[in-house]
Amino acid sequence: MCESITTYINPLTDFGFKYIFGRHADKEFILSFLNAVIGGDSPITDVKFIDKEKKGESKDDRALIYDLHCELEDGRKIIVEMQNRYQTHFDDRAVYYLAADIYAQGEKGEGWDYKLTPVYGVFLMNFEWKGFKQQHLREDVCLYNMQTKRVFSDKMGMTFLKIPMLVKDADECKTTLEKWLYLLKNMEKMETLPQTFMKEPVFRRLGKVAKYAALSEKDKQAYKASLKAYRDSYAIAETERAEGRAEGRAEEKKDIARKMLSDGFATDIISSLTGLSLSEISLL
């Protein structure tokens, strides 16, 4: 076994995510997860997977963004998406994919009465985004009437789950949803699943199914390729974030230098305090 392979498969990879949540053989995992998110008073008892291909996405997008299209027994459709890094217009993208599923329900001819089947999106975010209140682990979005203060339509809804915001230890995770998010975030680093989780049959089963050693040889090769694609793309994303932070610090230094110049400070003093060279300061 190569050095980079751990006891459990990484659920943040395309293979790992779909192996755990997207197989008919182990639908108990996706059912447990969906019930934790949207089950409410009417538990979800069955789900079927719909094969859908998203068009227009780059190879890099597919390495860090992947999804499952599900249909519940009552006809509701749910898109469960894992996104491992921020994408420009992330919020618009979420609306677009749900709207596309709603639009696809249209029927030609005069007989259609526009009755829609609800489409929901569950977006797992493995990144921080300033578009939401960062202290909230979960954000729920719907079509809302500002005057009546009531939901206008239940035909489209979105739940955003921010994996980095779960900072609890394993024994502090009390709900099934917290436990799933904890495992998504930490499972690759574990030797065994937390004992507090193993009291639930679904997690005892997961502890067996999600082991790398339990995969077939074909699946092991597929997982290694998926893991490499995930790590390569994630390394690129980390480099871009580091470069963005460096650019931000550089601009901050320039802003300070401009203020000091306007206040009459000597350029050598400005250079000493900001770290900018005299030539850089002269360009300001």
Quick rundown:
The protein has helices at residues 14-21, 27-39, 59-64, 90-103, 176-186, 201-209, 217-262, 267-274, 278-282; strands at 47-50, 65-72, 77-83, 119-125, 138-145, 150-162.
Describe the protein's architecture and organization.
- By secondary structure, the chain is an alpha/beta fold.
- The chain has 9 helices and 6 strands.
- The chain is globular and about 75 Å long.
- The N and C termini lie far apart (56 Å).
- The model has no long low-confidence stretch (mean pLDDT 87).
Write out key terms for the chains shown.
single chain, alpha/beta, globular, 284 residues, 9 helices
Q: Between the first and last Cα atoms, what is the distance in angstroms? A: 56 Å
DSSP helical segment count: 9
Q: Spans of 5+ residues with little confidence (pLDDT < 50)?
A: none
Percent of residues in helices: 40-55%
Which geometry do the CA atoms define?
globular
Number of strands: 6
Write the layout of secondary structure elements.
Layout: H1 14-21, H2 27-39, E1 47-50, H3 59-64, E2 65-72, E3 77-83, H4 90-103, E4 119-125, E5 138-145, E6 150-162, H5 176-186, H6 201-209, H7 217-262, H8 267-274, H9 278-282
Parallel strand pairs: 3-4, 4-6
Antiparallel strand pairs: 1-2, 2-3, 5-6
Helix pairs in contact: 7-8
